[in-house]
Structure formats: structure tokens, C-alpha cells
Amino acid sequence: MKTYEERRPENQLMEEISLTPPTEVVKSPTGEPKREPGALKRKKRRRKWIILGVLLVLAGAGGATGYYYKSRTLPIEIQTENVQRRNLTEVVVANGKIQPVLQVKISPEVSGEIIELPVKEGQPVKKGDLLLRIKPDYYTAMRRSAEASYQSALAGKNLAAANMKKADIEFRRNEELFKAQLISDAAYQEFKTGLEVATASFESAEHQVNVADAALSRANEELAKTTIYSPLAGTVSKLNSELGERVVGTAMMSGTEVMTVADLNEMEARVDIGEIDVVLIAVGQKARLEVDAFRDRKFNAIVTEIANSSKGNNPSSGSSGGGGGSSQQQDATRFEVRLRVQEKEVFRPGMSVTSEIETRYVTNVLSVPIQSVTTRLPKGKQTNAAPEKLEVSKGEKGKKEEQRQKPIEVVFLHAGDGVKMVPVKRGISDDNFTEIVEGLNEGQTVVSGGYKAISRELEEGKKVKKGSGKPPERPEKS
Questions:
Q1: At residue 364, does pLDDT exceed 50?
Q2: Count of CB atoms within 10 A of residue 268's CB?
Q3: Is residue 361 a contact partner of residue 86, using CB atoms and an 8 Å limit?
Q4: Over the stretch 13-39, which tens digit does the pLDDT of each residue have?
Q5: Least confident of 92-106, 305-319, 339-353
Q6: Measured between alpha carbons, how far is 89 from 434 in angstroms, rounded to an integer?
């Protein structure tokens, strides 16, 4: 342990540095001196300010770096392609189903139990072959009843004829007596009236015979309808009923569809075309069919029929009144188009098909990739926003001016490190290219990608660079 004389130089040094008199150093039980509390607090405060200053410097540097990367204009990556002459074929794509050209749904006209069903689904049949037979007991009894009524009517007619003949004989005999003034006028009129009554009775009996004959014919026809024969040569493509089932006739209501007989040698595709494209379709146009069941194979077809009315069109159903709006959901307007398949293949009714109908064809025309054409406002009204998201001015005059500014179709020509917007007029298009009628010359370089750059970002004066067409990645902020 140091004595007071040994600690004296330290005490003098403390007096020179601090204005306040030094405090006595308290020793710990181990003999080491304890630090003064005031000095520890000052040291912690100094360290805190140093750390805070460093953080402020780092924050300022990060903000400046972020602002620099955010504010700088990065070149837009694009893809280019030259304007070339090509042959274009405009096609209309539609989906539908494969169906036989000729098919008949077999539904009985009379009700009853199926007692004979000699065919199976998929079985070929010839015209006139037996398809099914319905239990005829009830209709046989009805025929017998009708035949008895007919015979009774014939007997009544014969009786009326005999009475008329008898009345005619009596009238002629009494007419001679009346001329000889042997009978009174009242007796003569009585015999004359009797002849007229007998004649009317005979005519009524004749009509009763006709009624009974019609009832007999109807009974014979219903009895004959219990047996159904094939109306065409084909295949039983669908069988819905089995032997022993009861079926409902179509005489008074929608009957039971027992089976469908179709000629599978002639098939067609029935597709739905929208109202915008149906005006381009004409009978005789060529088409290509892709059937899902036959992969990597296309079939040729020809347009044979175009519907005059849209599917589900019901002229009698008008719009609902009362200002509440229509309660029925408005579906897209579509028209059915039938395409006759040229090749012979084992198609099955109901197969899914995708058709490409060739509507218009041009040769040796200027064309560009279809994605190169976009819409912009005329020069002086360009904006980065899409045309449908433009904001109009609040005033009524400003709104009218904006409404008059309609977007035009344009392409962007690549020149150096920039682009030039050129208005164009389009013709027909195929899957990849579109015809340019006005605005471009052969050999010029147009921007063909990427999609976001063409549709939104590109403007005259913006820097571009050829690349993959993908938007450039901005550096991450520190």
C-alpha cells in the first residue's frame, strides 16, 4: 500500500487538471482504487455523442446515394426488328365440338314399357332396322275399340239408308194420290217431311262413319308407333334407355330420348364465333382444325353454314321495366359456325376442337411484329400513363378537350440511343405480324420489345439500349 508521500505527485496532477479539489480515492477491499462516479458519467456521455454523430453521417450518405440512384435516368432496354415484306393470312380462332353432319334423336311418340331393344351403343345399323319395341297391349285394345265403333257406325249408316229408301217410296206413292186429290194437303206434307228427316239421318250416319274411320286410323297409327325402325344408316352413338324401362311419348310433352343414331362418316366442327369476327366469315372459306384427341395433327375443313341468329337469342324477352335494370345476366353474343371436316378419321361426337378460319390473305406487304404497334396521344399530348388512365382537367372545357384527343396507333423507330414515335395505319394481322399500310418504309428498324417499354415507358427523348427487352434492375438502396 502506497503512503501519502508516494501518492502526492498524483494528487498534484489532479489539482492541475481539475478546478475542483480532488476527491479522496476509495480503495476496494482488494486494494485497487475505485473510479470517481462523475468521471464515468462524462465518459459515457462522450461516447454517446460520438456514436450519434457517426449514425447521422451514415444516414446522410445513404440518403444521398439513394436520391442519386432514384433521380438518375436509366436507359430502357429494348429489342428491335426491321420492317420487312411478308405474306399474311388473317385467321379467326374459335373453340367448339365435333358433331356428325347427320344425326337423329330417337324419341317414341307413344308411352309405355320397352319390351324389345336389340341394339347397343356403338352398334352400326341400316335404314329400316328395328331399334326398339314398346308394349302394345294398351294400343291393341284401343284399336279394337275403334274398329268396333267403326263397324257400329257402318251399321247405323245402312239403317239410315234403308229408312231413307222407305220414306222415299212412301213419299212418291202419296205424291201421286195428292195429285189425284185423293189425300189432303196435310197428309202430303207429312210424307214429304218424313223423307227429309230420313235423308238427314242418312247424312248424319255417313259422318259418324267418317268419325269412326278416323278414330280407327289413329288407333292403327298409335299401334304402329310402338315399333320404331332406324330412319338412316349409321351408328347408335348414344343409348340412354335399357330394356324394361318406361318411356314417355312426345304426343303432348317432351318425350324420353331413348337413343341417337348418327352417320359418323361425315363429321363437322360446330364452333362459336363472336359478333365482331362473324362478319368476316363466309361460306367456302378454308379452316384448320386441332382436335385434342389427335395431338400434333391438323385437319382441313370448309365453312358450310353460318347461323343467322346468335345462340340463346330470344326476341320475345325484352328488357325489364321499372328502372331496376335487367335481372338476367348478359352473356357474350356468339354465332354458331359449322365446318365440314375433309379427312376421314375415327372422330367421336363431342370431341373438343380448336379451329383457325382463314378470313383474309395478302402477299408481299410491309409488316412489323404485332407487339410493335401501340397507342399514344398525338404529339404534344404524350404521357407515360396508358391512354385509358389519363386524368382530365377538372373544368368542363378541359374535359371536352381531353375527350377530343383520341389515341392513335404508333410504332417507335430506333435511332442511335433514342427512339422516334411514328403514326401508322394497320391492315390485317396474323398470329405474329401485322400489315402496315401507311407510315413506314422497308428496312426501317422498329422497337419490338419489351412489352412494358412499348406500351408505357417509351417516349421521344428517352434513352434506350438494345438488350433482352426486360426492364433493367435498379440497384438496391443502402
A1: yes
A2: 24
A3: no
A4: 444 444 444 444 444 455 555 555 566
A5: 305-319
A6: 10
Looking at residue 475, what is its pLDDT?
42
pTM: 0.61
pLDDT in tens, 260-318: 999 999 999 999 999 999 999 999 999 999 999 898 889 999 999 999 998 876 554 44
For the stretch 236-250, pLDDT in tens is: 999 999 999 999 988
Find out whether 310 and 288 touch, Cβ atoms under 8 Å.
Answer: no
Q: How would residue 478 be classed by pLDDT, with cut points 50, 70 and 90?
A: very low
SS3 labels along the chain: CCCHHHHHHHHHHHHHHCCCCCCCCCECCCCCECCCHHHHHHHHHHHHHHHHHHHHHHHHHHHHHHHHHHHCCCCEEEEEEECEEEEEEEEEEEEEEEEEEEEEEECCCCCEEEEECCCCCCCEECCCCEEEEECCHHHHHHHHHHHHHHHHHHHHHHHHHHHHHHHHHHHHHHHHHHHCCCCCHHHHHHHHHHHHHHHHHHHHHHHHHHHHHHHHHHHHHHHHCCEEECCCCEEEEEECCCCCCEECCCCCCCCCCCEEEEEEEEEEEEEEEECCCHHHCCCCCEEEEEECCCCCCCEEEEEEEECCCCCCCCCCCCCCCCCCCCCCCCCCCEEEEEEEECCCCCCCCCCEEEEEEEEEEEEEEEEEEHHHCEEECCCCCCCCCCHHHCCCCCCHHHHHHHHHCCCEEEEEEEECCEEEEEECEEEEECCCEEEEEECCCCCCEEEEECHHHHHHHCCCCCCEEECCCCCCCCCCCC
- pLDDT number for residue 450: 83
Query: pLDDT grade, residue 468 (50/70/90)?
Result: low
CB 268 within 8 A of CB 305: no
Domains along the chain?
A: 1-25 (no CATH), 111-239 (1.10.287.470)
